[in-house]
Design brief:
Blueprint (H helix, E strand, L loop, with lengths): L10 E3 L19 E3 L1 H7 L1 H18 L5 E6 L8 E5 L4 E4 L5
Parallel strand pairs: 2-5
Antiparallel strand pairs: 1-3, 3-4, 4-5
Length: 99
């Protein structure tokens, strides 16, 4: 496995599982961001930070999001997805295998 980060413009947010107007769609991703070593190795810190800022903007537009947000790499469909989870203390960027 390459340790070189992928900077893919094709990292696209998957539609969340619950409707935006659901009571559990209340997270704004404003907590501090942490990332697992595997997520940083796979995607690089700049891309993770970019997608984190995108989530914050999306949360404002939608008046909150689900606690789990998933980005898929359309340029590499067999590669890992990038997850963001807000747990009330921090927002963690991670790979599904880190969970």
């Amino acid at each position: 496995m390459s340790t070189r980060p992928r900077h893919s413009p094709d990292l696209v947010q998957r539609v969340q599982e619950i409707p935006f107007d659901h009571r559990d769609s209340r997270f704004f991703f404003t907590k501090n961001l942490v990332a697992t070593p595997a997520a940083i190795a796979a995607f690089g810190a700049p891309l993770i930070a970019d997608r984190f800022l995108f989530l914050q903007e999306q949360a404002v537009r939608c008046n909150g999001l689900d606690y789990l947000q998933v980005f898929e790499d359309h340029a590499n469909p067999d590669g890992p997805n990038l997850w963001f989870i807000e747990d009330g203390v921090v927002v963690t960027a991670l790979l599904p295998s880190d969970y």
